[in-house]
Amino acid sequence: MRRIPFVDLKAQFAEEREALMPVVESCLATGAWVGGEAVERLETDLAARCGRAHAVALNSGTDALILGLKALGIGPGDEVITAPNSFIASAGAIIAVGAVPVFADVRPDQNIDPDAVAAAITPRTRAIMPVHLTGRVADMDAVTAIAARHNLAVVEDAAQSFGARYRGRPAGSFGHVGCFSAHPLKNLNAAGDAGFAVTDDAALAERLRRLRSHGLADRNSAPEWGLVSRMDALQAAILSFRLTRLADVIERRRANAALYRRHLAAFNAPCRDHEFNTFHLFVIQADDRDGLRSFLAEQGIATAIHYPIPIHLQPAAAGLGYGPGAFPECERQAARILSLPIHQFLPPEDIDFVCDGIIRFMAAQGAS
Ligand SMILES: *Cc1c(COP(=O)(O)O)cnc(C)c1O
After folding, report:
1. Nearest ligand 1 atom to alpha carbon 86
2. Are both 207 and 288 inside the same structural domain?
3. Distance in Å, CA 154 to ligand 1 centroid
4. Is 10 in the active site?
5. Where are the beta strands (DSSP E) in 182-327?
6. Domain assignment present for 4
7. Is there a domain that residue 1 lies in?
8. Which pLDDT tens digit goes with each residue over 251-306?
9. Name one GO molecular function term (predicted).
């Protein structure tokens, strides 16, 4: 039977092995395994790609969010508005700094609804954390206008969207700080955990550098308490190497999305002219999502759900006081969304096979 995996990281390594191993070896040979030139070079490249003055390499996207909030002075007593349909880490980062996540519902394109953001503002609101879900930038004209009107910080959760653009501007270039993940499952991926934050604010960048390294301003003086959230030099070297190939990865994913959309456009949120989407995920919606998922699994097609339980309905969030029905669009999508394989190693025949399975399932549903 044909087997179509959801991701194929072994294929990624096989493709890059010959060129990558010398990079790994020369990084190890420097003996600079924390910090140093490999990290600095990556930071310069990442800042440039995001159109920002500074990038700070960190150990994960989650820590980029946590330290981004902390560096902005957000903490106990503060509220941060974010999307309930994100990965758990968005709200988790807000909790980690002692602030309160306040959710705003999403639009059919799965990104935060600016009208819902405006309605969620209270005197305690300090920041908005839009999430650029699936590789599509949220409606940042509207979000930044609301933030400016209410004097709020904007922390972009761009973990899924490195390289995506909105009206020509890259993800991460809209907020006070843009936070990215380089987790193995993201489009720009390390060989382990990694992340980074970008900003135009030199003082904010300096504070992020302190916070990632014990709060130390230099070897001996600590103006404040910090953590150990540095990116390993080895991961930085691997990311610099993979950055040179990222445009190709994104093009292959976009080509796959275009193939899917030929057959499945009716089930996938449309791409707008002002968006350049990087398709970290390709999500369709179906009435009988679970039935479709089982049917595809029987044909050897792996799928995933991002995410089946909205954050406000997670047991961890019980104390926040939300219940079922609080965010109807988010909850409706959670029951309907299905992520199809879209990785860069997927051959067109496999995409045809997936589409064929979905169309057959949908037709049988319609007929019954
Ligand atoms: C992956 C992800 C994160 C967390 O990134 P890590 O590097 O795994 O810590 C945060 N938010 C979103 C939307 C993500 O997809």
Report:
1. 13
2. no
3. 17
4. no
5. 195-199, 275-276, 282-285
6. no
7. no
8. 999 999 999 999 999 899 989 999 999 999 999 999 999 999 999 999 999 999 99
9. pyridoxal phosphate binding
